Amino acid sequence: MNTMVLFVPQQEAWGVERMGRFHRILEPVPQRCASSLPMNTMVLFVPQQEAWVVERMGRFHRILEPGLNFLIPVLDRIRYVQSLKEIVINVPEQSAVTLDNVTLQIDGVLYLRIMDPYKASYGVEDPEYAVTQLAQTTMRSELGKLSLDKVFRERESLNASIVDAINQASDYWGIRCLRYEIKDIHVPPRVKESMQMQVEAERRKRATVLESEGTRESDINVAEGRKQAQILASEAEKAERINKAAGEASAMLAKAKAKAEAIRLLADALMQQNGDAAASLAVAEQYVSAFSKLAKDSNTVLLPSNAGDITSMVTQALGIYSALTKPHAAKSPEVTPPALEVPRPPRTELPEVDPRNSS
C-alpha cells in the first residue's frame, strides 16, 4: 500500500507509476555499518572520531563536534553520521586486460578516510560505494597500460598510480584515499604454463651463460698462470746464469790473485841465497813425479832419448829458466844469486823433441 512513507527492503526494487505511466523505481537506501542515526533528545554526546551532520527544517545547519551538543528537538534533525576513522574496503575481484591482451583476475584492498563530512554527506550518495567503483575502473585502466611482465614487476608503481587517480576524483566527495594494495593476481592456466616455461628457459640460459663465463675465466686464469710461470722460470734462469758467471769471475779473479801471489813469493824466494838450488830440486822432483804418472793415464808413453840422464834434464830446465830470467837480472844487478854447482854430464847430442809431448 502507498502510505506516503515507504521502507524498501534490502535487495528489492519497487516500480512506481504516476497517473498510469512509469515514474521511477524505488531502491533501498544504502546504509553503512556506522551510519545509525541517533534520536534528537535535545542533549547529545557525540563520540570521538565521529561527525554528525544536522539539518534544520530540511536544510544543512551544522556539524556536531565530539562532546556535549544541544539541539532543538522539533526543528533539528541528525541526517548523517560520518566516521572519521580510517576505513578499509575490500575491492571485489574483477577481470582486466593487459597491454599484451592477457586477461587477469585481480582484487585489492582500499584504505580511505573522510576528510570533509559535509562533502561526504551531500557530494555523493554513498561515498564508499563510489570510491570502490572508482578503484575498480582505475585499476582496469592502469592495467591496460602495462604488459604482463611489468604488472608483476611494477606492483608498487601500479598501486601509487591507482591512489593518485582516486584522489583526483574523490576530492569533490571529501574523501582521501590513503593507499591501495593489490591482494592477488590470477593468471589463466595456459598463460601460467607459458610463464613457467619462460622462467625455466631463462634459468637454463643463465646457467649456460654462467658456465661459459666460468670456463672462460678458468682458461684465462690457466693461461695467465702459465705465462707467469714461464716469466718467473726465465727470470730464475737469468739470475742463476748471472750468479754463476759472477761466481766464476770471482773464482778466476781469486785464482789469478793467488797465482800472482804465488809467483811473487816464488820470485822473492829465487832471488834469495841458494834459490837456484831450490829451483833445481823442485824441477827434479816434478820430473820424477811426471815420469811416474805417464803409464797411469794411458797406455801410450813418450820418452826422451836420455830419459835416464836426470842431470842433463835438470841442466836443460835450468838453462831455460836462466834464459827467461836474464832481463829481470839486468834490471836488478845488485842481487846476484850464487852459482849452482852441478856436475856437468858428458856432452851428448839431444834429439829434437816436440815441446808439447815433453811437457
From TrEMBL:
Q: Tell me, which GO biological process terms does this entry list?
A: CD4-positive, alpha-beta T cell activation; intracellular calcium ion homeostasis; lipid localization; mitochondrial protein processing; positive regulation of interleukin-2 production; protein complex oligomerization; proton motive force-driven mitochondrial ATP synthesis; stress-induced mitochondrial fusion
Give the InterPro entries listed for this entry: Band7/mec-2_domain, Band_7, Band_7/SPFH_dom_sf, STML2-like_C, Stomatin_HflK_fam
Query: May I ask which residue range the UniProt record assigns to the signal sequence?
Result: none
Main localization of the protein? mitochondrion
Q: Enumerate the spans annotated as Band domain.
A: 41-199
Which PANTHER family did the record assign?
A: STOMATIN-LIKE PROTEIN 2, MITOCHONDRIAL
**UniProt keyword annotations, A-Z:** Mitochondrion
Any idea what job this protein has? Mitochondrial protein that probably regulates the biogenesis and the activity of mitochondria. Stimulates cardiolipin biosynthesis, binds cardiolipin-enriched membranes where it recruits and stabilizes some proteins including prohibitin and may therefore act in the organization of functional microdomains in mitochondrial membranes. Through regulation of the mitochondrial function may play a role into several biological processes including cell migration, cell proliferation, T-cell activation, calcium homeostasis and cellular response to stress.
Q: Which family does it belong to?
A: Belongs to the band 7/mec-2 family.
From the Swiss-Prot or TrEMBL record, state where the protein is found: Mitochondrion inner membrane
Name of the gene encoding the protein in the UniProt record: STOML2
- The region called Disordered is annotated at 327-359
Q: What is this protein called?
A: Stomatin-like protein 2, mitochondrial
Q: Which organism is it from?
A: Pelodiscus sinensis
